[in-house]
Design a protein that fits this description.
By secondary structure, the chain is α/β, with parallel strands linked by helices. The protein contains seven helices and 16 strands. It has helices at about 45-60, 90-100, 135-145, 155-165, 210-230, 250-260, 285-290; strands spanning about 1-5, 10-20, 25-35, 40, 45, 70-75, 80-85, 110-115, 125-130, 150-155, 175-180, 185-190, 195-200, 240, 260-265, 270-275. The strands form four sheets. The protein has a six-stranded mixed sheet with strand order 10-6-1-2-3-16. Strands 13-12-11-14-15 form a five-stranded mixed sheet, sandwiched between helices. A three-stranded antiparallel sheet has the order 7-9-8. β11 (about 175-180) and β12 form a beta hairpin. The longest helix is centred in the last third of the chain and has 21 residues, at about 210-230. It is globular and about 50 Å long. The chain starts with a strand and ends in a 5-residue tail after the last helix. About 35% of the residues are buried.
Length: about 290
C-alpha cells in the first residue's frame, strides 16, 4: 500500500491505497486545512505549518504508510506542451524533451507522459513536462526533514490524465473537466478520452458566491469554442465539475443546462474500491491519479 499526497491551495489531501493493473483499492483518505500562505503557487512558504499538517496526518491516520510517499503538486512554474516524437528509448526521449524547452533560460527538470503510444506516422504523441529544479528540490528537502522519502513526484495534470485513462467509459467521451482547488480553477479538455488542452487560472469570484457560476460558464464557453476551432470532429457531451463545496452544489447542473451538456459524475466505478468513508473521488482526483502507475 502506498500513500499519495497532494498539496492543494489551502489543503493537504492524502489517499492511501493499492493499485493493480486494472483496479485501485483505497484504504484511507484525509483532508487537512493548511494556514493561509503556507503554499503560494506551489511554493512552500510556511514549512512549519506543513510540518504540523504532516504530524497531524500521522497521528490521525496511522494506517497511512509514510515510507516512499508519492507526491502530486501544481504550480505556474510547471511548463508543458504536446508533441509527436519518434518511438525511442526513455533516455533518448528525455533528450528530445529537453530540446523542446531549450529556449527557456532556467534550470529545469524534465519528464513526459505518453498520450498515444502509436501515431499514424509511427511515432508517439507525448505530453512534455518541465519544472523548475529549485521547486522540486524544495519538496524533496521538506519531506526529508520529516523523515519521509518520496518515491514519485508528479504534476496534478499528469495525475489527472492517468486517472481519466484508467476510468472505464471515459475513453469514448469528449468532455470538459473542471477542478476547483481553493482559489484556482483547473480546466481540461479531453477528445474521445484523449487529453487535448489544459489551463489553470486564478478565480476572480469568491467561492460560494453567485459570481462563481458566471466565471465557470465563461471557462466552459471558451473550451467549447476551442474544440470547435480545432475541428476535432467530436462534440463535447459531458461536463465534470469537481471540488465543489456545499454552497456550490447547484452550479454543476445549472452550467450543464446552459450549454446542453450532460452532468458527468466521477464515481470510480469499475476501477476504484473504497474502504474509506472519507473518500470522494471528486475531491481526491490528483492524489488518487498519482497512485496509478500506468
Amino acid at each position: 500500500m502506498d500513500t499519495s499526497i497532494y498539496f492543494a491551495n489551502g489543503t493537504l489531501r492524502a489517499v492511501a491505497g493499492s493499485a493493480g493493473k486494472r483496479s485501485l483499492t483505497v484504504e484511507d483518505a484525509a483532508t487537512l486545512k493548511l494556514p493561509e500562505g503556507a503554499l503560494i503557487n506551489g511554493v512552500i512558504t510556511g514549512e512549519e505549518a506543513l510540518a504540523t499538517a504532516i504530524h497531524t496526518l500521522r497521528e490521525e491516520h496511522p494506517r497511512m504508510p509514510m515510507r516512499n510517499v508519492r507526491l502530486a503538486f501544481d504550480s505556474s512554474m510547471i511548463y508543458f506542451k504536446q508533441a509527436e516524437l519518434p518511438r525511442l528509448s526513455v533516455k533518448r526521449t528525455l533528450e528530445m524533451v529537453r530540446g523542446e524547452f531549450s529556449e527557456m533560460d532556467e534550470e529545469l527538470l524534465y519528464d513526459y507522459a505518453v498520450l498515444s503510444p502509436r501515431t499514424e506516422n509511427g511515432g508517439m504523441y507525448v505530453l512534455l513536462n518541465a519544472v523548475k529544479r529549485e521547486l522540486i528540490m524544495s519538496y524533496i528537502a521538506f519531506f526529508q526533514s520529516q523523515g519521509i522519502t518520496l518515491s514519485a513526484i508528479s504534476t496534478a495534470l499528469s495525475s489527472q490524465i492517468k486517472l481519466v485513462r484508467a476510468l472505464p467509459g471515459l475513453g469514448r467521451e469528449t468532455f470538459i473537466m473542471l477542478v476547483l482547488d481553493g482559489n484556482m480553477l483547473g480546466a481540461s479538455l479531453y477528445v474521445e478520452g484523449r487529453f487535448r488542452f489544459a489551463n489553470r487560472a486564478r478565480l476572480f469570484a469568491e467561492r460560494g458566491s453567485e459570481a462563481l457560476e458566471a466565471e465557470i460558464e465563461r471557462t466552459v464557453s471558451t473550451l467549447i469554442q476551442f474544440n470547435q476551432s480545432e475541428k476535432s470532429g467530436a462534440t463535447i457531451s459531458h461536463l465534470y465539475l469537481c471540488g465543489l463545496i456545499r454552497e456550490e452544489e447547484g452550479i454543476h447542473g445549472d452550467v450543464c443546462r446552459a450549454f446542453g451538456l450532460k452532468r458527468g459524475l466521477l464515481t470510480g466505478e469499475g476501477l476504484i474500491h473504497s474502504r474509506s468513508a472519507e473518500f470522494d473521488l471528486t475531491d481526491y482526483i490528483y492524489a488518487t491519479g498519482n497512485l496509478l502507475r500506468m
